[in-house]
Structures are given as structure tokens and as C-alpha cells.
Design brief:
Layout: H1 5-12, E1 16-20, E2 25-30, E3 48-52, H2 66-74, H3 76-93, H4 106-122, H5 127-145, E4 153-156, E5 160-166, H6 169-185, E6 193-198, E7 202-208, E8 213-214, H7 224-243, E9 255-256, H8 265-269, H9 287-294, E10 310-313, E11 322-325, E12 328-332, E13 339-342, H10 345-353, H11 358-368, H12 375-391
Antiparallel strand pairs: 1-2, 2-3, 4-5, 5-7, 6-7, 8-11, 9-13, 10-13, 11-12
Protein name: Aminoglycoside phosphotransferase domain-containing protein
Pfam family, one: APH
InterPro entries: AGP_Transferase, Aminoglycoside_PTrfase, Kinase-like_dom_sf
């Protein structure tokens, strides 16, 4: 059995495991344990590959003994954790950085300046022409970088990202306004909003690209000290976010970042779809109105209490939306759910998407303990979630 040298090295490090079915068939699975520094060969193969041992000659050479592959596959998880422990030990031997400030690299600054100049030039053109340019850049980016993890977000050349929305234009407008607000008043690392084009059918939001990998890819290789540093940094950024005053022009108590209708995955899941309304939910004058909207007649005793502080909320803090680079948070992205919500909403939404990764759940418990005791709110939310995904259907 012949394999490339890079694949053989990855296999020896526990990145692949074999699962055998009926002879001579087998499946090869990638083992997703470890940080972003995975061998590049893994990027060129699917998560699972089906194969079969075949003899393409007349030499009657016997097939490889699969018992050794079976035995090795039983230890792949342990092998991966061993390599991670070595990686963490090497990280701990490095001297700590002299400065704790997050300083962008020269290349990142240069690409951002280029993106700003490009967008300034594009904004001189009429909206329909800009939409055509961005549509072309989308296809160019897909060809150069491949699709991203989200079907409506695409990496572009020149250090940019493009986000699109069909029909639901208000969520992009809210995200664009939130990015402007945060860049003006906080030190939170968010993308620079470059342009927003709203068409009759599809809208485009152009932003700069931030360095780093989603923190979910880095959790396995983070030491306990690294986790503590991450938690403290996230607390700092969330404190800045929650301390921001509501702009004078916003009249509703609970609304999106710029005062308009809410676009929130948790609320969408709890409501029957209305074609005329779409996925947006009208803002609320009071927290009581918001609580009544969350409540369901099937669970009459399950309802949130009023009296919470209303704060600016990202509303989609998860392992995919926080970027991590060189031991620091390098970006907090995807703010289309952002808005003014009760103070517990950030915590419960952080647990809404990720319910099974124990390390992440423990990290969120420690981060949000700084802002209050939201356990009762979480219990209420969890009952409503369970109804949305089981009893409702």
C-alpha cells in the first residue's frame, strides 16, 4: 500500500483512523483533535473517504494485514492528545510577550489600507455598478480561496470579506451600523465596514478581513493559562460592549443595534414563520413585551422575569465568531444578531449554539460570572429551547 510521505506523517501523528466494513472495503476518517496547525494534506482530503483494497496486477500479492490498522486506529485519539501536550509544553517554554497590546502586522495594515482605498473608489460609483463589481469579486474569491464556512460569506482578494443577504436586508444594515458604532467608541477588534449596497433582491456588505482562526479550532491546543488569558480578554471586550450608551435616536427598549427589527436565530426558532414578516421581529417597547413574545402557551409557567438591565449584545458569541491569533483574541465577527437585549441574553445565546463542548461551556460560565448570576435565566431559556426543538414539532 503506497501513500504520499505527507499523508504517512499525518497518519503516524493520529490524524487518520481506519474503520473497516465488509472485506475489502474500508473508510478513512479524519481525527479532529488539535489546533489550526494541522498538516496541509488534511485540507485536500474530505472528512471521510471510502476505499477498498484491490490488486491491480496478476502477482497475487496478499492484501495488507488490516489488524495492525485496526489496532492503530484505536489509539489515534490518544496519539493526538500526546502531540497536543507536547505542543502546549513548547508554548509554555516561550517567554511571555513584552506588551499585551494587540498590534496588527505590517502586512495586515497594508492590506487594510488597500481595502479602504478600493472601497472608497467603489463608493464613487452608482449602487447597481458596485453590486456587479462585488458579485464579480465573490466569484473571484471563491475561485482563489474556495467557499467559506458560511454560504453567505466569501473571502475576497486584497484583505476583504463580502457578506450577502437575500431579501433580509435589514440585518446587514444593522450589522454595518454596529461595526461603525463599535469601531468609533471601543477597542473591540471588529472588521472595518467598507461599504453597504442594498438592492431589490440581494444586498452586499464589504468589510476588512481580520487575522486568526476561529477559537473553536484552537481550544484543544490551549493551555490552562491560555484559557485564563482568553477569558480575561473576552471579559474586557464584553465589558466595553455592555457599557455603551444607547444612542438617543433609539426609542425602543429591545431592538437591533440601530433601533430596528430584530434578527435573532433563537427568536426565529421560537416563532411560526410568517411570510409577510420574514425572519425579522419587530422591536419591543418594554422588556415585558419581549418576555411575552418568548413565552409559549404550551408552557404557561415558563417565563422570564422583567427588570433586567438592557445592554448592547453581540447575541452570537460562539466558537466560530471569535478569532484567535498568537495567543490573543484577534477579532469578534458576525454581528447580524447584535442588538439591545436583557443582560442575560449574551450568556444564554453563548450556550445556545454550542451545547456539548464542555471546555467552552466552562469558559463561558467563568466569563459571564463577572456580569451577574444568570443561572435562573438559563434554566428558563433551556426549557423554551427544548420546546422549540421537540414539543413544537
Amino acid at each position: 500500500m503506497l501513500v504520499r510521505r505527507s499523508a504517512a506523517i499525518a497518519f503516524s501523528q493520529g490524524h487518520f483512523k481506519f474503520k473497516f466494513s465488509k472485506d475489502p472495503n474500508y473508510h478513512v476518517w479524519q481525527v479532529w483533535i488539535g489546533g489550526p496547525g494541522r498538516p496541509s494534506v488534511l485540507d485536500n482530503v474530505p472528512m471521510t473517504t471510502r476505499g477498498a483494497f484491490k490488486n491491480h496486477s496478476d502477482s497475487e500479492i496478499p492484501f495488507p494485514d488490516k489488524s495492525l490498522l485496526k489496532a492503530f486506529s484505536r489509539f489515534t485519539n490518544a496519539i493526538r492528545w500526546y502531540h497536543i501536550s507536547v505542543e502546549i509544553a513548547l508554548q509554555q517554554q516561550k517567554p511571555p510577550p513584552v506588551s499585551t497590546a494587540l498590534t496588527p502586522s505590517f502586512c495586515h495594515r497594508l492590506s487594510e489600507y488597500g481595502a479602504v482605498l478600493f472601497s472608497a473608489f467603489c463608493r464613487l460609483m452608482p449602487s447597481p455598478l458596485r453590486a456587479q463589481i462585488y458579485r464579480g469579486l465573490w466569484f473571484l474569491g471563491a475561485r482563489l480561496y474556495g467557499p467559506s464556512c458560511s454560504f453567505n460569506v466569501q473571502r475576497l482578494p486584497f484583505g476583504m470579506y463580502l457578506k450577502t443577504k437575500r431579501q433580509e436586508h435589514q440585518s446587514l444594515a444593522s450589522e454595518y451600523g454596529a461595526l461603525q458604532y463599535l469601531r468609533r467608541l471601543t477597542h473591540i477588534p471588529v472588521p472595518r465596514p467598507l461599504d453597504l449596497v442594498c438592492g431589490s433582491d440581494i444586498s452586499y456588505m464589504l468589510t476588512t478581513r481580520l487575522p486568526g482562526h476561529p477559537v473553536g479550532l484552537c481550544l484543544d491546543s490551549m493551555s490552562d493559562a491560555g484559557v485564563d488569558a482568553f477569558n480575561n480578554e473576552l471579559k474586557q471586550y464584553l465589558s466595553e460592549l455592555r457599557a455603551l450608551p444607547k444612542p438617543v435616536g433609539i426609542k425602543h427598549a429591545i431592538c437591533n443595534a440601530v433601533g430596528g427589527p430584530l434578527y435573532d436565530y433563537r427568536m426565529i426558532a421560537g416563532q411560526d414563520y410568517d411570510k409577510d414578516r420574514g425572519d425579522h421581529i419587530q422591536p419591543f417597547a418594554t422588556e415585558e413585551d419581549f418576555n411575552n413574545k418568548l413565552q409559549t402557551p404550551a408552557l404557561p409557567g415558563v417565563c422570564h422575569k422583567s427588570g433586567h438591565q438592557i445592554v448592547l449584545t453581540h447575541a452570537d458569541i460562539n466558537m466560530r465568531n471569535i478569532l484567535y491569533h498568537n495567543g490573543r483574541i484577534s477579532g469578534i465577527i458576525d454581528k447580524e444578531n447584535a442588538g439591545w437585549f436583557p443582560d442575560y441574553w449574551e450568556y444564554t445565546k453563548a450556550l445556545y449554539v454550542t451545547k456539548v463542548n464542555r471546555r467552552w461551556l466552562s469558559m463561558m460560565d467563568r466569563v459571564f460570572a463577572t456580569f451577574g448570576d444568570f443561572r435562573e435565566d438559563y434554566v428558563t431559556e433551556r426549557k423554551l429551547w427544548d420546546y422549540c426543538y421537540s414539543g413544537k414539532f
